[in-house]
Design a protein that fits this description.
The chain is an all-alpha fold. The protein is 74% helix and 0% strand. The protein is globular and about 120 Å long.
Amino acid sequence: MRGTGQGPGGVSRPWLLVGLAALFIGLVAALIFSGAAAARGVSDPGALVRWGLPVSKAVHNVAVATVIGGLFFAAGILPRDRNGSRSKVRNAPEHPAFTRALAVAATAGAVWTLSAISVLVLGYADIAGQGISGDPEFTRSLVYFMTDIDTGRAWLAVVIIAAVVTTALFGVRSRGGLALTLILALGGLVPLALIGHSSSSSDHEGAINSLGLHLVGVSAWVGGIIMLALLSGVLGGTGARGTGAGASARTADITEPTLRRFSSLAGFAFALVFASGVINASIRLTTWDDLFGSAYGQLILAKTAAALVLGGIGLMHRRWVIPQLGNRAMGRSARSVLWQLVVAELIVMGATSGIAVALGRSAPPQPTTFAPDASPAFILSGYELPPELTPVRWLTEWRLDWLWIAVALFALVSYVLGVRKVQRRGDSWPWFRTVNWVIGLVVLTYVTSGPPSVYGRVMFSAHMVDHMALTMVTPIFLVLGAPVTLALRALTPRRDSSRGPREWLLIVIHSKFSQLVTHPLFAAANFAGSIVLFYYSDAFGYAMRDHVGHELMNLHFALTGYIFVLTMIGTDPLPRRAPYPMRLLLLLATMGFHAFFGVAIMGGTGLLAADYFGNLGRTWGASALLDQQMGGAVAWGIGEVPTLLVAIGVAIMWSRADDRESKRTDRAADRNNDADLTAYNDMFAKLAERDARLGERNSKLEGR
């Protein structure tokens, strides 16, 4: 697999051009079919904008996927060293695949930045209904679009993120820096999920979350296939070059491990893409006629069929091609089939990406603007007021948060697979931990998608139930599930110089950041102090009004509660653990702080987030201020009970630790015939003898 990588050893560059051609053919065909590129009469911006905007978006999508795919490969799939093994040499030569992955990602980053700028300018021209010009008025309006209009601000954020990621790709070589760059690149997908059709759907938060998950899956999947094709010529091993015959001059053949690792990533990405696509389509298309009778629905059907074809090709990779790569008799034919399937994937993915861009330019059957008579609650929260809260509705009123449902499903499936792997190896795993993990995920889903979340948007008391359950109840069960311990037992360590999930998990555990946030004093201060900082600042109002703020609030309080409970009763590995007396002292302090916070809310006469809770137009239940005071009582009550249970848990662990220490001491005494006790008694005997001699000497002195 050298040179251009043509034939059975790789994918030739002309096939990449075929994939790009398929993208633009699919884009043009879908635009013509849907009529999205047709002239719009008086507000028509011109053919340059009508056709240039979707083309720029297509280039943007391919570029960002390539960047994300390259970072996934460099950070978690490819070995860094040329010989593939773990090298102790600090500046060991890089594997050509690792070097090429970063070079391709950096080039794609530059294209990403330029295409995002193009979309920003053309997008304004499209919305304004005018062609691009050098008129100062056009420039002033463009600046206003970037700074005051949601769509413009979103694309400006994408441009900034793309520029920062591209700069990092040209300079960062460390694996930690690449991981942080990958996280930032994934963050560049967030603005894309917040604009367009998703932001104004009937279930706008469900559409935003499902679209965001869809973009993550597509980027990892498409970007991975592109990187696999571009790296095909340098994945195979080569002998020593030149006069140097040492191990450092050899290039390891990493085809099989690379494909195996990417296959796992692609399988996860396919499940995410297909499930989130179905959910997003079901939100936008509410009837069968919308699906089969509209151009929008028919494009979705075409895209779904293409995704299933790609999933089938990926299954062939996993079930037949990859297992045959190590077979000498079948290896050559397997490699030939492998790259033929990659070519097929490139072509299908290109056409699918074109359809996806055209889909974004097409109008869905459902309206995408607020109704003229929209209620205050709908304008503020994006949803109509739920019915009056009753005991039964604490179980029946749900609004699915697909982001947290995806997190819960991933955590559940991963945990079950981990337990299964450990048990297959012959090791045991306590059923008590599994039950607690499942209960914790059920509670997490209930508080993020169930009645506490639904009514927490319109009632402070329900919001406080949601918050306290998220930060105090859910973490107890999740911590008792010991997920990190299970992961370290189930995940296989990498033998080469790449970093897999196990390696990254260990790095996070032993990092300086982990040492800080899991320090008992910091965890307790963050757990208690962040409540005051959140509710008595503008952050609370932002979290109630804005979808991103709401999800960040959930994430913060879930992690804050989890880390605090972990430092108190967790069995997973930590950089340091507080002694049991300090744990009880910290728990008592947090109980007192929660009581103080709850009493302060109960006695408060000013409405928190008044511009939100005071303008919802709720006609049932207690007034906003009285409901807030009831929320203070909830914070006091719900906050104390779980803390007390954790304190009991600490006391039990302390008692068991003392019992274990006593048993260890007894076993040591049995081994050495109570040598420690004998030495201890001899010490006191010698002290007594010395005191007796001193007494006799003093008596003689007094007698003289």
